[in-house]
Design brief:
4 strands, four-stranded antiparallel sheet, 231 residues, alpha+beta, 8 helices, single chain
Length: 231
């Protein structure tokens, strides 16, 4: 049999004659974290219609495809769930707000009158991204929380504090590795321990932090005990 005359030779020829082509229609755009580029990029959300082609000319519809997310940089296509991952900028803001909320919750549980607790909290909050945070600002915010009965119900460790913590931590937890979630809990533990052993209210707040971060109860207990040990 001559080369190119058998079955193996017919497939490439058929592929040149018959094929499919997708016509993409933009549905929207924005910024996302591109898994292929490994950073924040612009994207287009596309919906496609596939057609059979004959000699490169579209002839018959073959149905819809997508929607997909196309990176404007690498042109790779991803499923719509790629937009669920926060951008680097958004992730940094979520992490900053989480540490700030945990610090306020722990202080509201009994540490707002302690200068050492306020100093420890301010250091943590500044490191998380609020570079101009001061002890006095934190003390004023805790006082405002205590007076806002619509948000802090029943005093320290109440339902209002739990809601605040879940609002800040629930969206962040799925995007953090276990070590990152543990780090946030340990920040809260260090603030609580800055003025002495844990109080029951502080333990209650830290347990809520662990729950919101989806940490098992045994891990929360282990981490809180480890934080008490001298470094």
């Amino acid at each position: 049999m001559l080369p190119g005359r058998g079955h193996n030779g017919r497939a490439p020829r058929l592929a040149r004659i018959l094929g499919t082509r997708t016509a993409w229609t933009p549905l929207g755009d924005g910024e996302f974290f591109c898994p292929n580029c490994g950073g924040d990029r612009n994207y287009q959300r596309l919906s496609g219609r596939r057609r059979f082609t004959l000699l490169g000319v579209p002839v018959l519809p073959r149905g819809e495809t997508g929607p997909v997310v196309e990176c404007a940089s690498c042109r790779r296509h991803f499923g719509p769930d790629a937009l669920d991952h926060p951008t680097t900028t958004r992730f940094s803001a979520m992490l900053r707000d989480a540490v700030h909320t945990v610090a306020l919750a722990v202080l509201a549980a009994g540490g707002a009158s302690s200068r050492s607790a306020l100093e420890t909290a301010a250091v943590a909050v500044r490191a998380a991204g609020f570079g101009d945070c001061t002890e006095d600002q934190l003390a004023a915010l805790v006082e405002a929380l205590a007076q806002d009965t619509g948000r802090v119900l029943g005093g320290p460790g109440g339902a209002g504090l739990a809601i605040e913590l879940h609002e800040a931590l629930d969206p962040l937890a799925p995007h953090l590795a276990p070590v990152g979630r543990e780090s946030i809990l340990l920040e809260g533990a260090r603030i609580a321990l800055a003025d002495g052993p844990y109080t029951p209210a502080e333990r209650e707040v830290l347990a809520t932090v662990g729950t919101a971060l989806t940490l098992p109860a045994d891990d929360v207990t282990r981490l809180l005990e480890a934080a008490r040990m001298p470094s």
